[in-house]
Amino acid sequence: MRIDVHAHVWTDGFLDLMESFGSPNTAVHRGLGAGAGEAELAARFELMDSAGIDHQVLSISPQVPHFADADHAVTAARYANDMYAELTARFPSRFSAFAALPLPHVDAALTELARGLDELGMVGAAVTTDVLGTSLAAPSLAPLWEELDRRGAVLYVHPSGRAAHSPLVENFDMRWSAGAPIEDTIAALHLILAGVPSRYPNVRIINSHFGGALPMLLQRVDNQQPWESPGTPEKPSVAARRMWYDTVGHGHLPAIRAAAETFGADRLVLGTDFPYQADDLFRRAVTYVQDALPAADAAAVLDHNASALFPTLGK
After folding, report:
1. How many other CB atoms sit within 10 Å of the CB of residue 261?
2. DSSP alpha helix (H) spans, the chain
3. 25 pLDDT higher than 90
């Protein structure tokens, strides 16, 4: 079963709600064909068929319900999850969804995680690479990691689109071109250096965009970790290979080859980043895997690895 783990749906109603609560950059998600209208969905399914993609796991990120105001966070999370639950119930063969969590409010997030997984049929949860500037490896989030570990849940990590909280990114028109993979890199390394993958071994963590620059940096991190971060509980390359990585690489063959050689092809899962890769770019998200990797590895990445992560899909 060909499963795309990196795809989005945003309705105008949801984006309006997020904007009213102060979420930035909602305009970048509008008018791209990622709504839930009948015509948009028909075009989307036709595109999926043209790429041989059977199923998409939807995430609301980067418009996640991460707000300092707890009422705003909970309201937005419930809205997103109810919206996705309705959509996946209408199209169960086409869509599953990650639950949105009202962070940084951990007790509320645990309640919504349980509702999403136990009542709404979600297949995991999605967060961004930081929570309002707080690392995913922060001690305050330990109860969430503990519950995800207890459940053996999938956690999908997507860039926040906050320019890595750096004016050197924000003020130079590269929030998404460079800022997003920088955020991926930082988040993955926070998890690795804090020992999260080994401390919570049952959580199946999926990082976006090959973990940013991680394939290029992992040997360097291994070499420098003993003196720069001596408290790291295991070799960074060992921790990195406990996680998974989606293949959104914009058709760049050297990038996916580096990721496959660094992590192993068994740690890569298909992602398209729809609607940001659409039309020919969407189809290329599949064919470049086939062009870059040996046939057996490409088949694993496209048709088997995600099925192993989500064993209930297609049953």
Report:
1. 11
2. 12-20, 38-51, 70-90, 106-114, 142-151, 167-170, 180-194, 196-199, 214-228, 236-240, 253-263, 280-292, 295-303, 305-309
3. no
- The residue among 24 and 195 whose pLDDT is bigger is 195
Exposure string of 25-34, with b = 16+ CB inside 10 Å and e = fewer, is bbeebeeeeb
> CB of 269 within 8 A of CB of 246?
yes
Q: Is the dihedral of CA 73, 76, 78, 84 positive or negative?
A: negative
CATH number of residue 51's parent domain = 3.20.20.140
Domain limits at 257?
Answer: 3-309
Place of tokens 């990590």: 157
Whose CA is closest to 161, among 187, 124, 189? 187
The total number of structural domains in the chain stands at: 1
End-to-end alpha carbon distance in the chain: 10
Distance in angstroms (rounded) separating the CA atoms of residues 4 and 304: 11
- Confidence band for 312, pLDDT divided at 50, 70 and 90: confident
Alpha-carbon distance of 23 to 1, in angstroms, equals: 35
Residue 44 and residue 56: Cα distance in Å, rounded? Answer: 11
Is 315 part of a structural domain of the chain? no
Both tokens assigned to 108:
């509320």
Residue 68 token pair: 């300092």
**Is 241 within a domain?**
yes
Side chain identity at residue 97, one-letter code? A
Across-strand partners of 135?
Answer: 130
Residues 6 or more apart from 39 whose CB is under 8 A from it? none
